Amino acid sequence: MRFTLNILIAIACNYCYGQKSKDVFHLKGSIVTTEPMVIYVSYYSYISDIGVTDSCEVINGQFEFTGKINSPTIAFIRCDNSRVIDLKTVTVFLEPTEMEASLNREPFEVIRFDGSQTQLDYDSLMKRKSAITQHYKSVLEDLQIASELAKRDSLRKRLLPFYEEQQKEDLLFINRNPSSFISGYLLQSYYRLPIDTLKRFYSSMDEKLKNSLFGKQLATVLRQKSANTAGKLAVDFYTNDVKGKPLRLSDYRGKYVLLDFWASWCVPCRAGNPHLVNLYKVYKNKGLVIIGISSDEKSQEAWKRAIIKDKLKWVHVLRGAKSETDTSNLNYKFSVNSIPTKILIDKNGAIIGRWDGQTEQNDNDMDEVLKKAMFD
Predict the structure, then answer these.
(1) Ramachandran sector of residue 34 (left: φ over 0; alpha: ψ -120 to 50; beta: rest)
(2) Residue 257: which of 181, 370, 157, 170 has the closest Cα?
(3) What are the pLDDT digits (tens) for 194-204?
């Protein structure tokens, strides 16, 4: 999968040290090649507050970079200047110190990277995860070339265990290395975890990581989630549904409302839809309203097809995001950092349940809360 380099650079983190550093990195490297070439490195410098892309001509297989950073920083080394992350790019973690690297030209990869403890942490994690990737290699390759929608959906379903195993390794690393920069880097992908789990991760961080960008981001997420958990009043909103009809959340006072945050392209969301359909059949005549809130702004036809295909016979709206950084959309208002997420609201407009992610345990917990609410 290709990602624009600017997006990934934007999430590079400033990890503040307690002691003073030289605020400079020096990377000397070698590459196994017989042809003339230029090496590029891109990273974000929080000292200069700009994204930096530097280049170096490889001479006799040697290259060298120097730059200003005051913390471990994610960087991308490329053998061309295409500005995308692909097979011609390697990810490394620079530190404000002396480092040495050895690269291979074909395939373009890191053979050795010394001088960065953050890189050592990253390498140890990737070594464990590579065995998982190898096991699913053929499915991942098929997904890359599949063009038919049905085929891609089928392959994504086959990859659900792959994502679960990858997550297991990530969370194991975070548990074992609570103050590693890599743990902070990984956590931004797991804001969907239960708030108690996120609080535990945050409390286990040392002060340096808490004061880093990742630590501050997690603190903000915790504040937002705390405002959208059981016992809090749900934020009211007004929008139009898939048929163009106006919809206001507060108009459903007196009924139980389940907000289902999903998207047509989200495999776990689609996998959980049959369970949701069954719940609706059981409780719709007892006062349950489901509002599907989709992240399909850029794929509205696929959204409408998915509603029909999955037989989702309830109200549907879009989250209303004008861009990925838009803070006025419904996902942001309800602190939804990943999908699927489900939020149950009682007759008085108070949140009585929240479930982030698609798991059997979440389904069982939601069933119990709904059953108690409907027959209370």
Answers:
(1) alpha
(2) 370
(3) 888 889 999 99
